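Morning run. Coffee first, then this:
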Amino acid sequence: MFKYILILIFFVLISNSKAEIKEKIIENLQNVENLGFKFEQNINGKIENGICIIKYPKKIYCKYNKNNKILVSNGKSLVIKTETSYYRYSLKKTPLNLILDKNFLIKKIHILEKSLIDDNLINFTIIENDNKIDIFFDIKTFNLVGWKTRDIYQNTSFTYLSSIEVNKEITKNLFKIPSQN
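And here it is:
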């Protein structure tokens, strides 16, 4: 009988710690207004890197280290601009529409099961509007540290975040859509 009580206590403690981790991730997200970070993006083996700032809801500015490439969302449109090209998309048609919506993420995290990866990362898999998005959080800081998506051309994209800074002062015009030139 004592053995069964110990097993029951063990399972209660494990389920409480799982719920506690989810709550800490949610609480951390609720307190984040913006994130600044370095990133590495791997799309089918092609690696690019740079710096980004996310401002909730749905705004992002990324400057890549090569080709003067920038990616900007003002909350409605997403623009990718290089020295030689200019692409404009409706944000709603991209997975970033969901990733950049912290209220959406919080609602999903409440109902999703988490997975532990290498004792360092917590993963939540979101399936929404024909998008499958894996969102990764650091188990120690509870910060968003990456995501995995498929882009509009069905390429798998991994984005890893590092040197994360939370709630820093940012330039107001940063998320202005650049002109096509």
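The two ends are 77 Å apart (CA to CA). Good start to the day.
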